[in-house]
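Chain particulars:
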Amino acid sequence: MITTMQKPYKPEQIDHILNPIVKKWFFTRFKEYSLPQLYGVMEIHSRNNILISAPTGATKTLTGFLSILNELIDSSEKGILEDKIYCVYISPLRALSEDIKVNLTNPLKEMEESSGKKFGIRVASRTGDTTTYEKSKMLKKPPHILITTPESLAIVLSSFKFVDHLKDVQWCIVDEVHALAENKRGTHLSLSLERLQKLSPAMTRIGLSATIAPLEEIAKYLVGYDGKDVRPCKIVDVQFIKKLDIKVLSPVPDLIDTEHGNMHDAMYDLMHNLIQEHKTTLIFTNTRSATERVVHNLKEKFPKFYGEDNIGAHHGSLSKDHRHNLENRLREGKMKVAVCSTSLELGIDIGFIDLVICLSSPKSVARALQRIGRSGHRLHDVTKGRIIVLDRDDLIECSVILKSAIEKKIDKIHIPTNALDVLAQQIYGIAIQEQIHINDLFKLIKGSYCYKDLSRKDFNEIIEYLAGKYISLEDRHIYAKIWHDEETGMIGKRGKLARVLYMTNIGTIPDQISVIVKIGEQVVGTIEEAFLEKLRPGDAFVLGGNVYQFKFARGMVAQVSASSNRPPNVPAWFSEMLPLSFDLALEIGRFRKLLNEKFCLGKSKKEIIDFIDDYAYVDKNASLSIYNYFFEQFNYAEIPSNSRIIVEHYTNERGMKYTIFHSLYGRRVNDCLSRAVAFAISKSQHRDVEIGINDNGFYVASEKSVNVMHAFKLIKSKDFRKVLDMAIDRTEILKRRFRHCAMRALMILRTYKGHTKRVGRQQVSSMILLSAVKRISPDFSILREARREVLEDLMDVENAKKVIEDIEKKNIKIDEITTTVPSPFAFNLIAQGITDILKIEDRVEFLRRMHKNVLAKIGSKKDVNKGGLEFDYMDAWKKAEEEKLANKDAKKEKLKMQAWNLKRVPTFAKREIVEMLEGKKEIKQDFIDGVHKYKKEIEKTWPKEIKEYVFKKVLQ
């Protein structure tokens, strides 16, 4: 049974249970017990499962450990402290594990010094960084508190000897539950916790989490099930214990009609002023590239204030040493400002931060509170955050985030369930640890929250795969990993290398590298694999300033063709951008609906602005911007909302026909809806269409006439899942995700007998394997899991299906309109791909001109240019192409000059280079031989540009 605690314990009750040494140490460090401690310490002392949800710096970790340290010191003083593991602490980050180790050993030393006693309490960390020597030391003398990660816990649970030390664990602490529960690392951990509970039946589970919802489901995830009943767990909800000081700021009064240069300068001036008003500032961006850009621009614009010693970037692409160095400098108070994407969201100790700036929308209320919660790290500090908005959609999004944060409305996280690839990996680990009856194994797995609804059919299919029932897979070197005696029902490991194979291939995080982009054999650059996943054949994107059209991918190579006559439809930042949460999207939709009602009732400008002020807690500048945005949309088109989808038909000057769905449900839902529509069009009308999506909607575009609404009406909720299964069947996203699932299920081994398989080889193997499993069954378990992962974890098929159901029930109304210029709410969606090929100034100018055209249409300005939008867009397009051409010509002339000025090079060779630059296709063999012969000398003496050009042409 899950219950939420209503009252804290009294301080005297905690005083009564604490050892005098622990109590003395505590009150030399703290004035009083914190609220989480008043709720949690007694419950942990009483061996009750508990989930504590509190902001960063609210003493969650000490709450979790205080009772445990107290009991260990008691046992030590009484001489009954045994050589065994009493507590397992699990954290998602190795760095956090090291922090905790330090934060436990220091208090223990202080207590030893103040009491003059030696307790002999050992604390050790076992992660991927732990040396063999340290591991062997632990085996002989186990730590009383073991600090580990989900992957390392799974390894020790299947180890030959160390597992004996886990047979009487008293407490298990899972830190940062919110960061684990929403992905497959958390799914993997949920099964490891069941395995640990089987070894230690009396174990108490303690969960520590930042701001998250729904807390009841997270509590169930933490404690799991005993048979059909959820294990008991108490929830401590003190998520809003700290005072919040959050504001949404706009660098300029008008977010649409301001020149880029002015907007850019105002944004950095605003950031600089905020930074200088505080001791240490942490800035969050939504992409790694933006992180680097902010650091560079602050240094460039304010060189007297920022240098290598007091500003730095922190993200996953940087080296471990760089990240650790920056974290240490933050702890030591040497940094004025640190800029990161998502890497500092979790509770690594980074010292005192007194301001957090979020650049653009954090895309969810929980994430906003987690990020801003990094400021005011101490309990009684104020959590101070400023969200800087850069466009009107951002402004509305962030205003609703601010309202939801103040009103304590947290968006719900998605917890993956029935992940069959993780299940296969864990069953293999269990079989390595012990022989077990199949029914006991099924019962053990069903104890996990993530597998409580697992069917016996799915379970049996995984057993059949692991036991080698599919003989044809042996052609792909996939052999039986376990034996299953169907008469006795027993299961065990197969093969002498089982333990080594398992431990060297364990984990859920897939290997990822850059994908090489080629035209034929010519390399044109690289893209992230996550970006490739989003591409469909025919999609256009920008790389190195040029537009390319995607054809197909093999292994880690993507084949493209040059696309000079069409703009891109997939923006370069698409794979990096965080998706808007569904719950927050609905809140924004409700806000839209309320404003639409005000406009429909003919309320005055003052009345509507006053309503915005009261509703969204924003300042006058922001309310005026919001009012103008909605005024333009209402008077030019229609205002969509959570219960009303506006379908906007618009044809541009080149004859491209756009159907824009204003479906504000977040990008994960819109990904499902757009793919279903495109699939319905391809099947019913035999047309391929272009699609573009963002959080606020999606569009379907085609040069030929397509009846999009007819296709949309074909989509029914009862068949929605099947339609999407077919829609993603031959896509890059399924091919890539199948590789990830096959690796988790150990169908593809990353490491075998000391050899590591490169990601490119893994992908090629997975594509051959994909064909093989489809021949066995189109519904093969691991292929089915890849589909589930794409549709449920990456996209949001459940909420997309709810949208379709609500349309069928008439809860969501569909209205169609036709426009000659995209409506204001469609600006960003239509512009997102195009703007990659424009300079940032041209992008802003492009949006401003669209805005002016809308104003002209609704007649609010008489002197506005009444030329069409496409003239503006084509102007910008032509300007960008001409500049590109001019740059290419200038570079060509420069290379020609370098060629003629080469020293000790025969004239015929110089002429050959110049002719190559002028477009000559065939290169003389004498020249090719000469380049090969004198390659080393050329490398040393030729200028860089001409050398690279010749080598690319001759040696490719």
